[in-house]
Structures are given as structure tokens and as C-alpha cells.
Amino acid sequence: MSTSWIAGAVLLALFVIGCLFVGWLFVKRPLEVFAWGTRRSLLRAGLKKTVVQAPAGPQTVFVGGSGPVMVLLHGAGHQAGTWAQVAHSLAKRYTLVIPDLAGHGDSAPSTGPIQASDVFGALEAVITASARGSRLTVVGNSMGAWMAMVLAARHPEWVERVVAVNGGALLGSNTRVNLLPRTREEARESMAQLRDASSPAVPDNVLDDLVRQAGTNPLARLAAAAASMGPWLLGEEQLREMKVPVRLVWGASDQLMTMDYARKMAALLPDVELIPVERCGHIPQQEAPERFEIALLKALGEAAPAR
């Protein structure tokens, strides 16, 4: 038996094993595959992955593009790749700063409860290191919208405008939406409440992966520190005194942060516009990226891109 034949057989065996492993990942760990793919998309869009030191530990940030600075903040349980479907287009107009918020993605802390103070302190460090020197447009989805509004309230000199996407700093949400499902059926119901009925059904293996991660994911770690979040919410009087313009871009089908919540905030903020995104739920930049980008550019007073 020749050495070359043995080497070829070994390479073939390794290739088969690799294919089986990749197939297993797609079936059993689809959320990890999706996160990896979206983060690769940010790099293909020309952004570079950097690390910023913060009180909570090292924070991962994707930075790139050209033009005025736009900070994109993802929601609880997600990571910077949430913005992958709109990053390439936005990077033609803006210098993008897209962090993994503290305790999410590759950003510290990697274990234990995630305090609101960790998230905000890390955001301050990211902006100080990556985006100071010009007034910022801060776009946040869900928890990211909350942090964006707190940033505007505490550092109005940093922020030119906020675009809150299905989230905010005012207490209130539909607590009947179960974000930490224990069974496939609970996960299916949760997804139905977070997405529009016309959107494609979430596959069973993805639902199963949501259940698998529910006990240890960043959402669970945030929930473990829920008692610390009160001081980081903004009351009605604080919203009335907001010095920064706020635009609300809202997936109208969201049953977690409903249109009623958006309207309540809109009634309090002094400089505000509510822009619904129809047939779309809680994470419009993923569920309907083209329509979301049109709404976002409208919120910024810019023309929609040619398609």
C-alpha cells in the first residue's frame, strides 16, 4: 500500500468528518451558524473587528464605512451581526460603529449576571474609543434602543439624534411574551409574537436551539440581574426633558414592545416622529431589512437607496 494512497485516504476521511460536523452544526446549532455567518457578513461589508477595553472587560466592536458616525446597538440576546443585512448599504453613507454589547457576542463578561451598569459603562468606553469627536447618530433595537436613550439623556453633547427601533427606556412591555422558552411549542409561540404572521415560519431545529440556549444565554443572564435595572429606566418627566431628537422606527406587528408603547413614548418626547414598519415585528432589520432601511433613512431625513 503506497504512502500517497494512505495520505489520500486520510484526507478523504477528514473531509467526510468535516462535512458531517458542518451538517451537524446546521441541524443542531443553527443559531451559532447564523451568528457566525452574520459576523462574517460585517467583515465582507468592509468593517474591521476591534477590541476596546471597558470596566466590564474587553469589548468587541466592528468599525468601518465613511461619512458621519452611526452607532448601531443590538437587542438583548443578540450580537453585532444583527445588523449584517443593512450594514453594507449603510456603510456607504456612514462610518458604522457596531459593538457586541457587554455580555453578548465576544464582549465580556462571558459568564454571570449582566448588569445594566455593565452594558452602559461598556457602551461609554466604546464610544470614547471609537466614535468621539463628532455628534453621533445612535440607532438601537430593543435593549439597544434603551441604551441609546439613556446615552442621550446622560450625554446629550455626544448624541445628535436617536433612532429607537422597537424599544426604549420607559418601563413597560408585554410580559406575556416568553423570551426564555422551555419547550418547542413555547418557542414557537414566542416567535409568533415577535414576528409578523406573514413572515416565514421559524424551523423546528431553530426553535429547539432557542430552548437549548434559554437557560444560559445573555437574556437569561440579564434576567438574573433584573433587580438592578430600575435606576437605568427613564421616567415620564425625563422623557419630556429629552434634549436630543428621537425617531421611533417601529415594527408594527411586534407584540412584545407594541405600537401602544411607541405611541406612549411619542406623546412624551418633545422632538419625535413615529415611523411604523408594517408587516414586521420586533427585529425589523432582520425580518424586513429593505423596508427597515427605507424607514430608517426617512427617520434621518435622507432619500431611500435605489434598488
TL;DR of this structure?
The protein is α/β, with parallel strands linked by helices and 307 residues long. It has helices at residues 3-28, 30-44, 84-90, 116-130, 143-154, 184-194, 204-213, 218-223, 236-240, 259-268, 284-287, 289-299; strands at residues 48-52, 59-65, 69-73, 95-99, 136-141, 159-165, 246-251, 272-277. α1 (3-28) packs across α2.
Report on the architecture of this protein.
By secondary structure, this protein is of the alpha/beta class. It has one domain: 3-Layer(aba) Sandwich (Rossmann fold). Helix content is 43%, strand content 15%. The chain has 12 helices and 8 strands. The chain has helices spanning 3-28, 30-44, 84-90, 116-130, 143-154, 184-194, 204-213, 218-223, 236-240, 259-268, 284-287, 289-299, and strands at 48-52, 59-65, 69-73, 95-99, 136-141, 159-165, 246-251, 272-277. The longest helix is centred in the N-terminal third of the chain and has 26 residues, at 3-28. The protein is globular. Mean pLDDT is 90; it is low at 9-26.
